[in-house]
Amino acid sequence: MTTTELLNTLYVQTQGTDLRLEHDTLRIRLPDTSGRRTLPLRRLDGIVVYGHINLCTELITRCAQDRRPITWMSWGGRYLARLDVAVATRG
Prior knowledge:
By secondary structure, the protein is mainly beta. It is 10% helix and 41% strand. The chain has 1 helix and 8 strands, in the order E-E-E-E-E-E-H-E-E. It has a 4-stranded mixed beta sheet with strand order 1-5-7-8. The chain has a 4-stranded mixed beta sheet with strand order 4-3-2-6. It is globular, with a radius of gyration of 14 Å.
């Protein structure tokens, strides 16, 4: 028997949301909401953020190391930038 884990892309649209790395977990804190939500980082294939979303440096670095892309979009949905997976070169 084999098991397959489907990877997901996290889309964040709530303005002012904070995304932080907490060990191997993504911690999500929504503005004006008590408590926090967490997701295991290993289950995410990519992250897409729209508008004013805060990402900590440690999360961005970890995503780069894990080859997990992050895409930044404007609040209206216009593409701004993407942190993509590194491509190994022969030297």
